């Protein structure tokens, strides 16, 4: 056995000291510290997930404790995937996701670009712009519900002013065509500042010397924008899209306050539909299968997206 | 001797006080937050004085009432000792063991269900339907009815305009079609410089609103849930030609005779529309009528009431609730004492006086009842022809399916009435198959 100085130092390290603490090894002590966290993680994340998977193959109803629980195999999954109404809910969710992210990125980036220019009072403007995202979605939903009211709502009067239409001649929340857009407008109003803040962080992270070098090379402003600004902000933008995408896939409170999923089922997003199945109809087994399908969808899409994001960051 | 007497009296008083405080309980009664609940608080003071029990109340706003209370029951919660629950819950309450079965208690205390109106006993108390298995005492009779701006209906200029337009005298409608005709007459009309509308009807999507509104049209057209009661044979009943016609009628009503923006309206919106002078007529539950009559702006001489008009037959949508003892309560004896007290004829009479709708025959059959309030006669008439939604344990699934299909057709204008009802039959069939009843 070699007796190098390193071995001698290693032999005298606190490992031996630690081993002497009440006879516990380092590893045991580490487990003692980590175990409560792992236990909590298992108890509140992993166990419910496994339990939900288990329930998804049954006809269990949480409000009927006396009912016999039967294993129904894949019937819940089959029903969900072949239900045309659920596909309409998915379609409504996709529409909502696409357009909210599109507008939020477009407007958020534009605002960040403008705010990033040094001008008098830009801090004040930043504060004013971020105010909507500080409000509760329930409050925002109610607030906009009044704004959209066809008889007294300010929104209709503003649209009427610009279009010459009668204010009460159109209903944002009651029309099948307009209701999805009414939600897109409110969500965009509320969450564009979030995207703006992330973009602003991205813009401010670009060192000035890169632009100065481009100026020396006589690159035009447009070229600087497309070859410096956009590529360097892109990872930030993608991060904002990821956050907003996951959030909006789960969107519930704002839509419930605004339309309750209506008119008909036009704005019934998957999250609202899932809540109805689970806690209003009490079809627990069916709703568990539904939740698993949504979980796999979000997890799958998010994983692909994160890989793409990492590739962009590596460039 | 005097000292001894004083000591004896004091000791006796202390013992009595100790005995009574040992039996005194803090009872919690759960119900929806609305006008009759306030009347019940007032009424219950008498019970507190008599029994020594202390009454607390948990009143939940209507939109959250079912969610909140059913969660409480499903989780075996001990919040409520007494619950005034919706009629649709009785099946689930009984089968899932949430409610105490009251037969033995009624027998022991001499409380007879024949003392209460048959329709209310059937709807609020029994499970399986119509059998002598009682899980609640009828507490609050209710039905969907109508009220209108009597002052507008009496104005000569409006009456003349109506006669010109329809050839009829303006008055309380005798049929559903007359109801629509009157509502269409008022739609967009200018009265005292304001644009007014026909009527506020129920179109709410989230809980039970549009179903309660539409059944107010379906029942008068002769709608039935099953071809044979108890058979769950719905094809040809739920989607009968009469049901299709009634549904088309309700859609026409919504499109041509309601204020703009009433795409998601229920009790509150109906009251608001009427009280703000927007509509000539409105539908709502009789429970709100005392408050409407007392309103200083649109009540009194300005308002009158009518029963849901018939079409092919008389028919009103049932509201109202029974009072049950919650099976998870630790104070069931005291809760039963409350029910015993509440069932007394004199308490029922006071209940009606305060604004609650008693279902006790001694109140309803009193010769003076019809004249005791401007809506009392209409209430009696309505209760004679009420029908209720499914009261099955799976009622929530059945209700939400109907909410969706009806809102899709009436408000979102998707498909035809026949398609909506056909889909409803499919949905309900699936629910009953899952329940093992088909």
Automatic annotation (TrEMBL), chain A:
<feature type="transmembrane region" description="Helical">
    <location>
        <begin position="28"/>
        <end position="51"/>
    </location>
</feature>
<protein>
    <submittedName>
        <fullName>Carbohydrate ABC transporter membrane protein 1 (CUT1 family)</fullName>
    </submittedName>
</protein>
<dbReference type="InterPro" id="IPR035906">
    <property type="entry name" value="MetI-like_sf"/>
</dbReference>
<dbReference type="InterPro" id="IPR000515">
    <property type="entry name" value="MetI-like"/>
</dbReference>
<feature type="transmembrane region" description="Helical">
    <location>
        <begin position="287"/>
        <end position="306"/>
    </location>
</feature>
<keyword id="KW-1133">Transmembrane helix</keyword>
<keyword id="KW-0472">Membrane</keyword>
<feature type="transmembrane region" description="Helical">
    <location>
        <begin position="178"/>
        <end position="203"/>
    </location>
</feature>
<feature type="transmembrane region" description="Helical">
    <location>
        <begin position="96"/>
        <end position="115"/>
    </location>
</feature>
<keyword id="KW-0813">Transport</keyword>
<dbReference type="GO" id="GO:0055085">
    <property type="term" value="P:transmembrane transport"/>
</dbReference>
<dbReference type="InterPro" id="IPR035277">
    <property type="entry name" value="MalF_N"/>
</dbReference>
<dbReference type="InterPro" id="IPR052730">
    <property type="entry name" value="Sugar_ABC_transporter"/>
</dbReference>
<dbReference type="Pfam" id="PF00528">
    <property type="entry name" value="BPD_transp_1"/>
</dbReference>
<feature type="transmembrane region" description="Helical">
    <location>
        <begin position="224"/>
        <end position="246"/>
    </location>
</feature>
<keyword id="KW-0812">Transmembrane</keyword>
<comment type="similarity">
    <text>Belongs to the binding-protein-dependent transport system permease family.</text>
</comment>
<dbReference type="GO" id="GO:0005886">
    <property type="term" value="C:plasma membrane"/>
</dbReference>
<feature type="transmembrane region" description="Helical">
    <location>
        <begin position="124"/>
        <end position="144"/>
    </location>
</feature>
<feature type="domain" description="ABC transmembrane type-1">
    <location>
        <begin position="90"/>
        <end position="305"/>
    </location>
</feature>
Automatic annotation (TrEMBL), chain B:
<dbReference type="InterPro" id="IPR006059">
    <property type="entry name" value="SBP"/>
</dbReference>
<keyword id="KW-0732">Signal</keyword>
<dbReference type="Pfam" id="PF01547">
    <property type="entry name" value="SBP_bac_1"/>
</dbReference>
<keyword id="KW-0813">Transport</keyword>
<dbReference type="GO" id="GO:0042597">
    <property type="term" value="C:periplasmic space"/>
</dbReference>
<comment type="similarity">
    <text>Belongs to the bacterial solute-binding protein 1 family.</text>
</comment>
<protein>
    <submittedName>
        <fullName>Carbohydrate ABC transporter substrate-binding protein (CUT1 family)</fullName>
    </submittedName>
</protein>
<feature type="signal peptide">
    <location>
        <begin position="1"/>
        <end position="24"/>
    </location>
</feature>
<dbReference type="InterPro" id="IPR050490">
    <property type="entry name" value="Bact_solute-bd_prot1"/>
</dbReference>
């Amino acid at each position: 056995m070699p007796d190098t100085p390193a071995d001698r130092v290693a032999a005298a390290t606190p490992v031996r000291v630690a081993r002497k603490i009440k006879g516990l090894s380092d590893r045991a002590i580490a487990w003692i510290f980590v175990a409560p966290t792992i236990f909590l993680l298992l108890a509140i994340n992993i166990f419910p997930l496994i339990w939900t998977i288990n329930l998804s193959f049954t006809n269990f109803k949480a409000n009927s404790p006396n009912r016999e629980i039967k294993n129904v195999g894949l019937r819940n999954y089959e029903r969900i995937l072949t239900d045309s109404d659920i596909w309409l809910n998915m379609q409504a969710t996709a529409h909502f996701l696409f357009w909210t992210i599109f507008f939020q990125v477009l407007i958020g980036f534009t605002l960040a670009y403008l705010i990033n220019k040094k001008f008098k009072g830009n801090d004040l403007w930043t504060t004013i712009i971020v105010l909507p995202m500080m409000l509760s979605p329930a409050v925002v939903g109610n607030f906009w519900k009044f704004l959209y009211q066809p008889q007294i709502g300010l929104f209709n009067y503003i649209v009427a002013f610009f279009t010459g239409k009668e204010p009460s001649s159109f209903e944002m929340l009651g029309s099948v065509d307009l209701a999805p857009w009414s939600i897109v407008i409110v969500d965009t109003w509320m969450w564009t500042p979030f995207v703006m803040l992330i973009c602003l962080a991205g813009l401010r992270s670009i060192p000035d010397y890169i632009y100065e070098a481009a100026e020396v090379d006589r690159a035009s402003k447009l070229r600087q924008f497309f070859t410096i600004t956009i590529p360097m902000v892109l990872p930030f933008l993608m991060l904002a899209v990821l956050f907003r995408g996951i959030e909006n896939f789960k969107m519930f409170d704002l839509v419930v306050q605004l339309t309750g999923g209506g008119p008909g089922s036009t704005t019934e997003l998957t999250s609202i539909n899932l809540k109805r199945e689970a806690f209003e109809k009490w079809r627990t087994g069916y709703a568990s299968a539904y939740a698993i399908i949504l979980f796999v969808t979000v997890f799958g899409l998010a994983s692909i997206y994160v890989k793409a994001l990492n590739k962009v960051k590596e460039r | 001797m005097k000292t001894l007497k004083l000591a004896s009296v004091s000791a006796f008083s202390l013992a009595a006080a100790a005995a009574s405080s040992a039996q005194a309980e803090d009872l919690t009664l759960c119900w929806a937050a609305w006008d009759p609940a306030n009347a019940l608080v007032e009424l219950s003071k008498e019970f507190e004085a008599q029994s020594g029990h202390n009454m607390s109340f948990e009143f939940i706003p209507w939109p959250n009432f079912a969610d909140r209370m059913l969660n409480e029951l499903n989780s075996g919660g001990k919040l409520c000792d007494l619950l005034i629950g919706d009629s649709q819950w009785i099946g689930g309450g009984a089968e899932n063991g949430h409610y105490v079965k009251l037969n033995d208690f009624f027998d022991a205390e001499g409380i007879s269900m024949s003392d209460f109106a048959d329709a209310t006993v059937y709807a609020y108390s029994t499970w399986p339907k119509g059998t002598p298995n009682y899980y609640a005492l009828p507490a609050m009779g209710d039905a969907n009815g109508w009220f209108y701006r009597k002052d507008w209906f009496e104005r000569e200029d409006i009456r003349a305009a109506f006669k010109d337009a329809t050839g009829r005298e303006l008055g309380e409608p005798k049929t559903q079609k007359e109801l629509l005709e009157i509502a269409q007459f008022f739609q967009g009309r200018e009265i005292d410089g304001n644009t007014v509308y026909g009527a506020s009807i129920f179109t709410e999507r989230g809980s039970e609103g549009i179903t309660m509104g539409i059944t107010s049209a379906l029942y008068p057209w002769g709608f039935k849930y099953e071809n044979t009661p108890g058979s769950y044979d719905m094809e040809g009943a739920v989607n009968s030609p009469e049901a299709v016609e009634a549904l088309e009628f309700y859609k026409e009503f919504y499109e041509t005779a309601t204020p703009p923006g009433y795409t998601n309206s229920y009790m509150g919106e109906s009251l608001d529309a009427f009280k703000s002078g927007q509509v000539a007529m409105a539908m709502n539950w009789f429970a709100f009528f005392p408050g409407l009559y007392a309103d200083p702006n649109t009540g009194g001489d300005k308002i009158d009431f009518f029963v849901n008009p018939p079409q092919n037959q008389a028919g009103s949508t049932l509201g109202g609730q029974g009072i049950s003892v919650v099976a998870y309560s630790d104070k069931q004896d005291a809760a039963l004492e409350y029910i015993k007290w509440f069932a007394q004829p004199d308490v029922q009479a006071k209940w009606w006086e305060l604004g609650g709708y008693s279902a006790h025959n001694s109140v309803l059959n009193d010769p003076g009842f019809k004249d005791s309030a401007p809506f009392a006669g209409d209430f009696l008439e309505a209760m004679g022809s009420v029908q209720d939604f499914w009261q099955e344990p799976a009622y929530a699934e059945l209700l939400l399916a109907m909410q969706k299909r009806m809102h899709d057709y009436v408000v979102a204008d998707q498909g035809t009435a026949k398609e909506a009802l056909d889909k409803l039959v499919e949905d309900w069939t699936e629910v009953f198959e899952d329940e093992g009843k088909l």
